[in-house]
Amino acid sequence: SNPCEGSLLRQQGSSQVRAETAGPLLFASPLRFSTRGAGYHGGVTEFQSGRYARQAALPQLGAEGQLHLSEATVVIVGCGAIGATAAALCVRGGVGRVRLIDPDRVHVDTLHRQLLFTEKDALRARTKVMAARSRLGAANSTVAVEAVVARLVEDNAEGLLRGADLVLDGLDTMGARELLNRACVGIGVPWVYAGVDGTACTIAVFGGGGPCFSCLWPANDSELAENDTAGVLNTAPAAAAAFQVSEAIRLLCGSEPRPVLHHHDLWGGTSRTVEISRDPECPVCGARGGSSTS
Predict the structure, then answer these.
(1) What's CA 69's distance to the chain center, in Å?
(2) Residue 184, class by beta-carbon neighbours within 10 Å (0-12 exposed, 13-18 middle, 19+ buried)?
(3) Which residues pair with 275 in a beta bridge?
(4) Which helix H or strand E contains 88, and what residues bound it?
(5) Which among 18, 78, 195, 225 could bridge 5 via Cys, Cβ 3.0 to 4.6 Å?
(6) CB 285 within 8 A of CB 212
(7) 10-residue block means of pLDDT along the chain (294 residues)?
């Protein structure tokens, strides 16, 4: 369960890089592994042959939108319940390059909600990004999948995110999201927040000329206690990823970001949106150019 999802509705508003080995975890520079399957032919060849025909048949997307997706680079930070599901949707949907960043290994107690992994992955203690890369490459060999075994920290954040057209949040702590927000604002790349709180999920787009994460949740907000033992319904992260990637596809196809936070309670069957605005005094984005979005 992520820490800041439920509090929004109340408000309205060790640097480690791990190498995958059979033995103990090693500490090293970020490890990058990338693959583009033999089936890759570039452009929209697969769309033309029918892979994406039903998706491209949508008037909101079309062949041009599918082409935009094929030319895009999406970075997903965190490859757990939300991040791994978002990665699968991006890869199957035809995003041309997907970079996964996560230092952690698969554990059996996360399998009820982390849909991309198996018992064998947990028994072998595989790193999440390497297990994900294998599955994603098998699902769509036309997409480049890059696995980075690393924890996002101040020293590497902008470098690991550079080259992205869009960043997706698969993180689970406030501090990590604050760091992600600073890095995205620093390099001028929008990102899509997604979190879960029990049976509910929350999604918002930050940056891109609109409000940033710190406009909504100032650093060290006392309302946002972190809790990694709270219950979570396994459909909530899947729903969060679906809403998150839907926003991502909109943005990659040229739509403007919507300055709202979406909240959906799957158990209660309710949905709501909360408008969010740029804070001109925000210590992260307040000094950048452009007018406030509300």
Answers:
(1) 16
(2) buried
(3) 260
(4) helix 81-93
(5) 195
(6) yes
(7) 41 35 35 54 52 92 94 97 98 97 96 96 97 96 95 96 97 94 96 96 94 88 58 96 98 94 97 94 76 36
CA Rg value for the chain = 18
Evaluated on CA atoms 76, 82, 84, 90, the torsion sign reads negative
Closest listed residue to residue 212, CA positions, set 252, 182, 246: 182
Are 1 and 232 contacting, i.e. CB atoms less than 8 angstroms apart?
yes
DSSP 223: T
pLDDT at 209: 86
- Which are the contacts of 252, defined by CB distance < 8 A and separation ≥ 6? 68, 69, 72, 74, 95, 165, 166
CB 98 within 8 A of CB 76: yes
DSSP helix/strand/coil, 77: strand
Tokens of 89: 């949707």
Exposed/middle/buried for residue 198 (C-beta within 10 Å: 0-12, 13-18, 19+): middle
228: tokens are: 């990694």
Handedness of CA 260, 291, 164, 18 (dihedral sign): negative
DSSP output for 122-146: HHTT-BHHHHHHHHHHHH-TTSEEE
Distance CA 7, CA 20 (A): 36
Total residue length of the chain? 294
Max CA distance (Å), the chain:
53
Residues whose CB falls within 8 Å of the CB of residue 16, separated by 6 or more in sequence, listed in order: 25, 27, 103, 151
Confidence at residue 11, expressed as pLDDT on a 0 to 100 scale: 37
Sign (positive or negative) of CA dihedral 66, 56, 137, 126: positive
